[in-house]
Amino acid sequence: MKRKNESPAPESLGLATRAIHGRKLFAHEGPVATSIAQTSTYRFKDSEDAVRYAKGDPNVYVYTRYHNPTVREAEERLALILGTEKALLFSSGMAAITTAIFSLVRSGDEIISTPGLYGGTYRFFRDTLPRHGISVRYVPAHEVGTIARMITRATKLVYFETPTNPTLQLVDIAGIVKATRAGAGRTGSQVAVMIDNTFATSLNQDPLRAGVDVVVESGTKYLGGHSDLMAGVVGGTASFIKQVHGSLKHFGGCTDPLAAYLMLRSLKTFPLRGQRQNENALALAKHLSKHRNVLRVLYPGLPSHPDHKTAKKQMSGYGGMVTIEVRGGVKGAVTVCDSLQVAINAMSLGGVETLVSIPVYSSHINMTKEELGTHGVTPGMIRISVGIEDIADLKDDFDKALRKL
User: Fold this and answer.
1) Residue 143 has what pLDDT?
2) pLDDT in tens, 184-215
3) What is the value of pTM for the model shown?
4) Matching CATH number, 271-402, of 2.40.10.340, 3.90.1150.10, 3.50.50.60, 3.90.550.10
């Protein structure tokens, strides 16, 4: 029998074990489920608690915008899942992305990014950052090696997502890291690499192994997984997360304790849900690729995908997102989405329910034709977030809807 101090660290165990138990894996007493500390403020034992908090004592709770026991437990669990030293939970994915970015850049700095981005992130880059004197330059996803010579002393961040939303284009993670390090070495700059890992999640992709510095995800999506909470997460080194936490207190994008509790509940089934979504997405993608009213199917797990080799190299699973282009342009896409009975026409992804959306009406609405072309988005595209329903029901549902074209 092993002694207590010979037990393996949670970090060395499998993803499902870490997701279920977190750092309480070897606790021998207490509640199985984490309690909800639904409070805005906390009683001090005495007035010295305020001094201890000011000196950095993490065990003194003051105000839920700063920290909360339920939120803290969720953050520790998320750090284990992401594989980062620390993680911070936010009220939304965009709160996580914007706060992390503003923790790294300031007026006069620049960001280099690939153009295939979530629409909210792209509009933040296009509309908000210039007002703060921060510029963004773009590099095509298949030319990330040129980042090495694009970096200047003003460059502070290289930002990208892979697979991209909604075209599921793959970006070479190791290639971006290598080019960034080369460019930073040439200019003597400190340049961070940040990835939006929402579509792949840590179940299917480990960007830290390739050298990425910061991981952000919309916790609303696969991590939450039940379409009933809003959250975002930032993972990185302890020193960086401390810096982001300071910005979080100022910007106020903290999560609610109830949302943190729901996140803890969801994480326990995250690996199971993700695996089923992977299986269903691959099966549905293969099925739809044979349909006469489907012009093309974009799914990294299909050999027909332009970036299939890159996906095989850097992904352990291909995810639950499938994008198709149907006949008839946007009218055809509307006909299909409005005819589905099992799949739900809704603007989100990552839940146990299969959801569909039309990018030109949702994530990429109000973009010019030129911008849509840069992002690779066409009017007849339908983005499918494949759920965990019976695959036969999903195939039949899409077949019936596609017959309406």
Assistant:
1) 97
2) 999 999 999 999 999 999 999 999 999 999 99
3) 0.94
4) 3.90.1150.10
